[in-house]
Write a structure and sequence with these properties.
The protein has about 130 residues and is mostly helical. The protein is built from 4 helices and no strands. About 75% of the residues lie in helices and about 0% in strands.
């Protein structure tokens, strides 16, 4: 029996405490997946709205639906967080904040800004001023 066979294996990911840098990285990947698949939905809606006036009316009614507004909100939040986390990665690519402590602070900042973006987009969608 080899030494690697004696190691305990923990497959319960919910029992592992991830560092904040890992959480920020996972959220960045999830937001990228949401943007990838969400872009197909929005391209379809754009195509449907540009075909004729009836298609535009259908898309307008669909967007007024509360479930659709939640989907739009999720897409916008993913876009905002992905943008913020991308800037964080660019800062680190230029050689700044490469230590674990600085990376942790930038991760906390990017998640906090992502929460602020989520609140702002939610307010913009559900409580428009105009």
């Amino acid at each position: 029996m080899s030494e690697s066979d004696d190691r305990p294996v923990n497959l319960d990911l919910f029992s592992i405490r991830f560092p904040i840098t890992a959480i920020a990285s996972i959220l960045h990947r999830i937001s990228g997946v949401v943007l990838f698949f969400g872009s197909f939905v929005f391209m379809y809606l754009l195509d449907k709205s540009l075909v004729d006036e009836a298609g535009f009316g259908e898309v307008r009614m669909l967007i007024a639906d509360p479930l659709t507004s939640v989907v739009i909100w999720c897409f916008l939040v993913a876009l905002g967080y992905h943008f913020i986390a991308g800037i964080k990665h660019m800062v680190m690519d230029f050689g700044y904040a490469e230590t674990f402590e600085a990376g942790s602070r930038l991760s906390v900042l990017s998640i906090a800004l992502g929460i602020i973006v989520a609140i702002l987009f939610g307010g913009w969608l559900w409580f428009p001023m105009f």
